[in-house]
């Protein structure tokens, strides 16, 4: 845990501000915001990678506490996550298999429906043809029978005449041959009628069988409904398993976050100023492990008297001077001017008393040479013209 605090230097400051004709000199100190390094959880320190005075780069691992329990929980959560993922994959395969089966049943139904309809159509045509043939054969047998009866009567009459020697043998032979032919024609017509009747019955039976096959389609439709129901159940199971997977992922992520909190990383570039614990010691949650500051975020802190307050404004640029390098200056810019004085004035003030009021200012210093350090006395010079 990192907490930003203002470095407090217990020193006696002599507030000094002088004004020349074209510049204001404000005396103060170099300061920096203190960064407090601490853990969110209590535990035994198993790793410390810094000492006081060290310069630490951003994201460097500074310290760790033991987290065997959290590691075990993460392992269990990941195992459960893998188990749920495997179950979810199996459900997806089952779902795809059910979809394929449903598609196959629909194709089978369509194919069977077309096939049965074609069979029924052909059977109906066969019945129609057989009925037509049966009607023709019935007409033919009537003709053959009528012809046979006529020829038979002629034959019997001619036979009497022939026995009485009333007609010649040739004439009798002719009628006898005609009688035989008509009799054979009648036999053929009767046989053809029997075949037509048999074919007609067979065609009707085939039609009935083809129509009865409609029940096969009804059976497939029941299978399709059952397959659709199974798909609905599997989809619900997938939804439940997916939610379980999300829950395990959330638990894993939360535990991983807890695991991250057992490690302290440098939030930015740091210089460690104080270290309070050593490896193997027990540290409480939120207890300060060490403090430091960002050398890139140091600033000047000083006070300006009330009569000169109107001469300065935010973002006004100036130069910083320190005793260690009297010939060197650092560029800076005012970033803060307090709206309240540091000393509480009386209710009624004379012009002489108002001079005693001072206001806090801060200035951001352009500095990348690691020369400036918190606590150093400094002067901030502002040109007014």
UniProtKB/TrEMBL annotation:
Keyword Coiled coil on entry: yes
One cellular component term from this protein's GO annotations in UniProt: plasma membrane
Coiled-coil residue windows: 95-161, 210-237
The keyword Coiled coil is annotated on this UniProt entry: yes
Alphabetical keyword list: Coiled coil
PANTHER family: 36 KDA ANTIGEN-RELATED, MEMBRANE PROTEIN
Name of the protein described by the UniProt record: Secretion protein HlyD family protein
Protein species of origin: Calditerrivibrio nitroreducens (strain DSM 19672 / NBRC 101217 / Yu37-1)
């Amino acid at each position: 845990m990192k907490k930003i605090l203002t470095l407090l230097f217990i020193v006696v400051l002599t507030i000094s501000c002088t004004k020349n004709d074209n510049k204001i000199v404000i005396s103060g100190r170099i300061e920096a915001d203190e960064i407090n390094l601490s853990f969110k959880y209590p535990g035994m320190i198993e790793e410390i990678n810094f000492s006081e005075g060290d310069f630490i780069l951003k994201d460097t691992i500074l310290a760790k506490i033991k987290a065997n329990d959290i590691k075990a929980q993460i392992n269990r959560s990941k195992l459960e996550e893998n188990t749920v993922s495997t179950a979810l994959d199996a459900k997806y395969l089952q779902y795809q298999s059910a979809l394929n089966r449903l598609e196959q049943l629909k194709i089978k139904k369509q194919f069977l429906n077309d096939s049965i309809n074609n069979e029924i159509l052909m059977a109906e045509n066969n019945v129609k043809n057989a009925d037509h043939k049966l009607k023709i054969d019935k007409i033919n047998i009537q003709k053959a029978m009528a012809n046979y009866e006529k020829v038979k009567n002629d034959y019997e009459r001619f036979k009497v005449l022939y026995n009485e020697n009333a007609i010649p043998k040739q004439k009798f032979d002719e009628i006898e041959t005609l009688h035989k032919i008509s009799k054979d024609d009648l036999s053929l017509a009767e046989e053809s009628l029997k075949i037509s009747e048999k074919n007609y019955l067979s065609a009707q039976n085939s039609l009935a069988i083809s129509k009865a096959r409609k029940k096969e389609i009804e059976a497939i439709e029941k299978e399709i409904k059952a397959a659709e129901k199974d798909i609905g159940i599997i989809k619900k199971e997938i939804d439940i398993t997916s939610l379980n997977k999300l829950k395990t992922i959330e638990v894993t992520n939360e535990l991983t976050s807890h695991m991250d909190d057992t490690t302290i990383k440098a939030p930015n570039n740091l210089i460690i100023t104080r270290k309070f614990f050593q490896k193997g010691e027990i540290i409480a949650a939120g207890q300060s492990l060490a403090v430091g500051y960002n050398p890139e975020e140091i600033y000047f802190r000083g006070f300006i008297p009330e009569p000169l307050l109107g001469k300065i404004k935010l973002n006004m640029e100036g130069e910083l001077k320190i005793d260690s390098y009297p010939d060197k200056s650092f560029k800076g810019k005012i970033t803060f001017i307090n709206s309240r004085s540091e000393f509480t004035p009386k209710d009624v003030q004379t012009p002489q008393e108002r001079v005693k009021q001072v206001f806090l200012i801060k200035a951001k210093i352009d500095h990348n040479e690691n020369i400036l350090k918190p606590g150093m006395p400094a002067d901030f010079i502002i040109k007014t013209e």
